[in-house]
Write a structure and sequence with these properties.
The protein is α/β, with parallel strands linked by helices. Helix content is 28%, strand content 24%. The radius of gyration is 21 Å and the shape is globular. The chain starts with a strand and ends with a helix.
C-alpha cells in the first residue's frame, strides 16, 4: 500500500502523486460510491498498486481532509493566491473584493498578488496598497514577464498547498509556468497515458513545487458571483461554505468584522444606522473608500436577490 496526493481527476481516473515513485493512474473503489464520497483533487489517499510498471492502482482510502472547497471541488487548501494585474487589464477592485469574499466564505486565507507591476507608476502601486492596507490581506507586487518579485511568491507558497484565483489575462498561467517549469511535462505524461484531456475542458490539477509545497491550477475561479442564502443551500456544510445574506455581508470583510461589536445596533448594515463603527472608521480614513463602496454595491445586490428569491 502506498500513500500520495490526487493531482488530477478525469472521467473516473485519479492520478496520484507518490513521493519518489511518480504518478499512478488509479480507480476509486466502489465503496466510495456507496458512501456517496467522491475523491477530490488535493486529497491525501492510500492506494494499492496493481502494476508498478504501468503505474496503475486502486484508491482504497481517503485520509481526513483539512477542508474541502465547493467551487471548484478541491481538498486540503491552505491559502488562495488571488492574482490581478496592475494594468492590461486594469484592476477591477469590485471583482477583486468578490474573489476575497468567496475565499472568506470557504474559510481559505487569501493573499493578493498584483502582476505586471512594472507597467504602472509607483504611485499607482501605492494606491492599490492603500486600498487594502486595513483589510489584513498580504499584498505582493510582481512581474511574471520580467521574473521580478517571484522569490517573494515562492516564499509565500513554501510549505503550503495553495490555489490560484483571478480573472483571465492577469498572468496566472505564466506565473505557474515560472514556479513549476516541469508541470507541462507532467501534464503531458498524464494526457498521453490515457489519451484524454488534450481536447476537453481543463480540469483542476495539483502541481508539486517542492517539499510539502503544492499549487492548484484550476479554471474554476476565473469568474464568480457572490452566493447568497436560500433554502436550496441548506445541504452545504457550514464549515466548508458560509452563505451570504445582506445582514451578514460585513462578516466577510475582515476590517468590518473587527469593528462590528462597536456598532450601536446589532446586525448593523453599516449603511444607514447611527453610531456605526464601520462608517466612523471610513470617515477617519481607517477603511478604504473603494472597499466600502464595493460593500454597499454587493449589499444592494444581495438584498435585491433575497427579495425575489
Amino acid at each position: 500500500m502506498k500513500q500520495g496526493k490526487i493531482i488530477k481527476g478525469i472521467a473516473g481516473f485519479y492520478y496520484v502523486y507518490a513521493a519518489e515513485s511518480g504518478i499512478y493512474e488509479c480507480r476509486a473503489k466502489g465503496l466510495f460510491r456507496k458512501q456517496n464520497i467522491k475523491p477530490l483533487v488535493g486529497d491525501v489517499v492510500q492506494f494499492d498498486v496493481i502494476d508498478e510498471g504501468e503505474k496503475t492502482g486502486n484508491v482504497i482510502d481517503i485520509l481526513p481532509r483539512k477542508n474541502a472547497l465547493i467551487r471548484p471541488a478541491l481538498a486540503n487548501v491552505d491559502q488562495a493566491l488571488v492574482i490581478f494585474a496592475a494594468d492590461c487589464p486594469k484592476p477591477n477592485l469590485n471583482l477583486l473584493d468578490r474573489f476575497l469574499i468567496m475565499m472568506e466564505q470557504q474559510n481559505v486565507p487569501a493573499v493578493i498578488g498584483i502582476n505586471k507591476a512594472d507597467l504602472v507608476s509607483r504611485e499607482e502601486l501605492m494606491s492599490l496598497r492603500e486600498a487594502y492596507r486595513s483589510s489584513g490581506y498580504p499584498l505582493l507586487f510582481f512581474s511574471a514577464a520580467k521574473e521580478e518579485g517571484i522569490d517573494q511568491i515562492r516564499e509565500q507558497l513554501k510549505g503550503r498547498t495553495s490555489t490560484v484565483a483571478g480573472p483571465s489575462g492577469v498572468g496566472k498561467s505564466t506565473l505557474i509556468n515560472l514556479l513549476a517549469p516541469d508541470a507541462a511535462m507532467e501534464t503531458g505524461e498524464v494526457s498521453e497515458k490515457i489519451q484524454r484531456g488534450r481536447h476537453t475542458t481543463r480540469h483542476s490539477e495539483l502541481i508539486a513545487l517542492g517539499e510539502d509545497t503544492y499549487i492548484f491550477d484550476t479554471p474554476g475561479f476565473s469568474s464568480l458571483t457572490v452566493d447568497y442564502y436560500n433554502p436550496g443551500m441548506q445541504h452545504l456544510a457550514d464549515k466548508e461554505f458560509q452563505a451570504v445574506e445582506p445582514g451578514t455581508l460585513g462578516w466577510f470583510f475582515p476590517e468590518f468584522r473587527s469593528r462590528e461589536a462597536d456598532c450601536r445596533f446589532a446586525g448593523c448594515s453599516h449603511i444607514h444606522e447611527p453610531d456605526c463603527a464601520v462608517r466612523s472608521a471610513l470617515e477617519n480614513g481607517e477603511i478604504s473608500l473603494s472597499r466600502y463602496q464595493n460593500y454597499v454595491q454587493i449589499y444592494q445586490e444581495l438584498k435585491s436577490k433575497n427579495r425575489y428569491s
